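Escalated from tier 1: adenosine-5'-triphosphate holo job.
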Amino acid sequence: MHGSSSPLPIAVEARNVTLSLGTTEILKGIDLSIAQGESLAILGPSGSGKSSLMAILSGLERASGGEVRVAGIDYGPLDEDGLAWARRGRVGIVLQSFHLLPTMTALENVAVPLEIAGLADAFARAAAELEAVGLGHRLDHYPAQLSGGEQQRVAIARAVAPGPDIIFADEPTGNLDGGTSGTIVDLLFARHAANRTTLVIITHDPALAERCDRIIEIRDGRIVADRRP
Ligand SMILES: Nc1ncnc2c1ncn2[C@@H]1O[C@H](COP(=O)(O)OP(=O)(O)OP(=O)(O)O)[C@@H](O)[C@H]1O
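Tier 2 regenerated the structure:
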């Protein structure tokens, strides 16, 4: 454990991160440190750069400039394969549009990435994760046979199954009705609490943001507010 005088270990560190696409500057110098075990909400208007920032911090996309370190790894020298390696097992990603493979059952969607990562008990672990999100009775269903909320629960099971240090969720409840979205959010916070997983959530929902340890707000590619609720 850390002593009272030592700072919390840092899970995510961004220094002067920029992103340009063509002549458009999307991120204009982001400085952000997220402590291990912290939950952080990212708020901001549509088009302000929230998803772009998350794509960079989660290793899905490379920054145009600046420095990014996640779970102790410097993303700077890494190419796309290197970033994929850096994400594996360390970073779980939940996107608004689920991104499940339509030709695989719920169980396969969760188990196959674990198998690729070399886990011997991939299918047993995947089944346990799906049980944990209340889908033990849907293991052999294909995504098209599942409701939106069920698909999002599969996506969460897939993201958390490798035991990542950090979970990034981009509007994980954006497409879901109120009751379903509450359940989905509870699942993310339960995992955060149980494992002290760092949790980074993009949301438009102020009530969800207030559940986090910290809220940042992005406008026009810059962090304009950083506070504790
Ligand atoms: N691949 C791309 N090519 C060109 N412009 C892009 C691309 N991706 C994002 N942008 C632009 O970058 C800006 C930031 O987009 P981003 O998706 O990060 O915003 P956001 O805050 O997540 O918005 P929303 O809340 O609507 O999801 C927008 O103006 C968007 O049009």
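Helices lie at 50-57, 80-87, 106-116, 122-132, 148-160, 178-195, 206-210.
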